[in-house]
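Session log. Operator J.P. requested a structure for one protein chain; no other inputs attached. Running the standard single-chain path with token output.
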Amino acid sequence: MKEKPDWVLVYGDTNSSLAGALAASKLHIPVAHVEAGLRSFNRHMPEEINRVLTDHVSKLLFAPTGTAVNNLAKEGILSGVIKVGDVMLDNYLIFKPMALQTSRILEQLGVISKHYCLATIHRQENTDDAAKLSGIFQALNEISRQFYPIILPLHPRTLKALEKNGLSNDALSNLLLIEPVDYFDMICLQMNASVILTDSGGIQKEAYFAGVPCVTLRDETEWIETVEAGVNYLCGADTTLILEAYSKACQTEVNMLDGLYGDGSASTSIIRALIEDATNHYMPPQ
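Structure written below.
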């Protein structure tokens, strides 16, 4: 109300994205949603509710992929939808050279490129379910014992859940635990991993950008393109299924497909659309 912005721009599927979208819509300020149209089709996920509601109050919907555009069309959202590519690819291409130049994370951890795996676990559907949490960490420990060590930047929510369920000692015994790392260090850890195991949506994409096969510790994903490309394996939280997916990932070579997530110019397209008010007269670049 104080700033009276021309637009409120929200990103992704967090609670703050939905809060910003609702506040703006009730003040009759147009909302633009970056990463619009993603769907896991699991309404038990809080992120899914945030995505759907944000999309339905937005005037401009910046979709990262053709799948996202189709998802919006199925919900009757046709106006203001623009396929721009993924701003995460923009970020990755901009910051990768800087990360390679400045990060010393491999030396600090004493690991060799392609001789370790990287894991991240934080999603509520896994941390709040003791059986899923146990299944995931049994698999991670087995991989770490039999194959390559697993580096795990441990999310505070995950640590609390492990302690709450009495799993922290056994579950973490064979893993290389580290504090959460910054973006540059994470890029380097991703690029040099042999396999990435995660329940994060963003890291599924970054694994693809880094040319590293991914095992997704969920039953579904918003980023179905990487699954369809055969470089991302959905396996849920079952120990046996995770080990099977890991075995497949070890045999997978990742080759980036042209245009799957755009060409690194999503941010430019978004700014242009905001300036020109895409709903009425935006013309995409030829």
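Operator note: The longest helix spans residues 130-146.
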